[in-house]
Specification:
- The structure holds two protein chains of two kinds.
- Chain A has one domain.
- Helix content of chain A is about 75%, strand content about 0%.
- Chain A has nine helices and no strands.
- In chain A, helix 7 runs antiparallel to helix 8.
- Chain B is elongated.
- Chain B is an all-alpha fold.
- The chains are: A mainly alpha, B mainly alpha.
């Protein structure tokens, strides 16, 4: 049953998580400012709480910073790629309006954020049990916590995209959906990884101060760093 | 009755749908925004309108949109170095793109005729304008991402590579539109158009070297040394791997 228009309905989050593509495709076809605000709210809250749990190990101030930065990355990625994503959809066989492509991406990010938010108590518990982050002794714990983050973020991201794919299939068929999803994923990966690089640190380092941006936040980029790391590993000159 | 004398049923030949079959395709395109919308969502409508008498106005609008979009993307590219590049980069990108198209237009018309396509010069101009417009509006779509990277990295080689990737993706879609247009011009073969696409890519790539620096900076507006683009790329990569490429003081 559709909730009355103009009223926030938190049950809609469970509809999103279940991936009820019939209902979600109806939602995405029309514009509802309150529903959009709900999705943005889920992103801010879910990713924010997860970010706080992530930064808490280093310092409470770091937790506050990451609680702001994590949702910021998600929202800026959606916003920065909105134009190109909106253009890719019709060009790749999915003739949906710009607004619909944007709200579909935001919906998938809301699903991802809701999952992250649900995992934040687990991460907080893990952090609480971990010994304090101090230089030299925290390496094994650091690796364990890092791996836990990778696993959770990957799970949340994959689930969000599977739900998005189901919606796109409903809107335009399997092949068009696959093409559009791949294009959107490539764009979001490109911009999202760079924004994460600019807005680092997240977990923080015991040897570096707690700060919102690193001093060199806008010097270099994510892919250059990966390239230099690979060069060091393989001893290229 | 002998079955061998039975007349086999006539199987209708499958012909591609003619442009203008759908009434929506016959709705005139009245302004530049409608042209952009049609190019993205109803390319057949745009192709139909380009075949109509008096399509010159529409083509002019498309070229104008391409120039504006190229200028916008150029400003974003210029933010990497700032200063004079804020106006030099847009001028070079927009100018270079239009000059590349103008240089390649005669050969496109010749290849179109050689392939047996029934396309007038105006229609060929329209298809080329469509290629340019789709390329440049996609570049504007990439502009926010390009800007983020421009503000983050100091490597000219990396930024050059990123702009090339964006340009290449945009060109792929533009070329696809153009080939879609030629498919309706009853061409006997697409080989000529394919050859022309290679020529256009080479000209556009050489233009980026002929008009350098577009991303970095230099003392003169135009380069003092003549180079082919592959040689220029090899020099840039050498600088980047030796560490010089981590500064934007050179192109």
């Amino acid at each position: 049953m559709q909730p009355p228009a103009g009223k926030l309905n938190l049950r809609e989050i469970s509809v999103l998580l279940r991936g009820e593509s019939e209902t979600i495709s109806v939602w995405s076809a029309g514009w509802n400012a309150r529903r959009f605000a709900l999705h943005v709210g889920v992103i801010i809250l879910g990713a924010g709480i997860y970010g706080a749990a992530m930064g808490w190990w280093r310092d409470p101030q770091q937790a506050m910073f990451v609680a702001v930065k994590f949702p910021l990355i998600i929202l800026l990625t959606a916003l920065g790629n909105a134009l190109i994503n909106g253009m890719f959809a019709p060009l790749l066989g999915l003739n949906i309006p710009f607004r619909q492509s944007f709200s579909a991406v935001v919906m998938s990010f809301a699903i991802t954020s809701a999952i992250l938010g649900a995992f934040s108590p687990l991460i907080a518990f893990m952090t609480w049990n971990a010994p304090p982050m101090t230089a030299g002794v925290a390496n094994i714990n650091y690796s364990a916590i890092m791996l836990a983050h990778v696993a959770i973020v990957a799970f949340a991201g994959v689930t969000g995209n599977v739900r998005l794919f189901q919606l796109l299939v409903k809107l335009g068929g399997r092949y068009a959906a696959l093409r559009v999803l791949c294009a959107w994923l490539a764009g979001n990966l490109l911009l999202g990884s760079q924004l994460s690089w600019n807005l680092r640190p997240f977990i923080g380092s015991p040897t570096l101060p707690v700060e919102f941006f690193r001093q060199n936040a806008f010097h270099g980029n994510f892919f250059e760093a990966v390239f230099h790391a690979l060069r060091q590993i393989f001893q290229f000159n | 009755m002998n079955e061998s004398n039975a007349i086999p049923p006539v199987i209708p030949a499958v012909t591609p749908r003619q442009l203008g079959d759908d009434p929506a395709e016959r709705v005139p395109i009245t302004n530049a925004f409608a042209a952009i919308e049609a190019l993205l969502r109803q390319p057949r409508r745009l192709l139909f309108q380009l075949r109509q008498p008096g399509a010159g106005g529409l083509i002019a609008q498309m070229v104008f949109v391409s120039a504006v979009c190229a200028l916008v993307y150029g400003v974003v590219a210029g933010t990497f170095s700032g200063g004079t590049q804020l106006w030099a980069a847009p001028a070079k990108i927009a100018g270079g793109l239009l000059v590349s198209a103008a240089i390649c237009l005669p050969s496109l018309y010749i290849f179109t005729c050689l392939s047996g396509a029934q396309a007038r010069l105006a229609e060929v101009c329209g298809l080329l304008a469509g290629l340019l417009m789709l390329m440049t509006i996609l570049l504007v779509g990439f502009a926010p991402v390009a800007w983020i990277f421009s503000q983050s990295t100091e490597s000219v080689a990396w930024m050059g590579f990123l702009h090339l990737v964006f340009w290449f993706v945009a060109t792929l879609f533009g070329v696809r539109f153009m080939k879609h247009g030629f498919a309706h011009a009853e061409a006997k073969s697409q080989a000529g158009v394919n050859v022309w696409i290679c020529i256009f890519l080479l000209v556009a790539l050489q233009m980026t070297t002929a008009l350098r620096p577009i991303i970095g900076t230099a003392d003169t507006f135009f380069p003092t040394e003549k180079k082919f683009f592959i040689g220029h790329w090899i020099n840039c990569l050498d600088k980047a791997t030796s560490g010089d490429g981590r500064t934007n003081s050179r192109d």
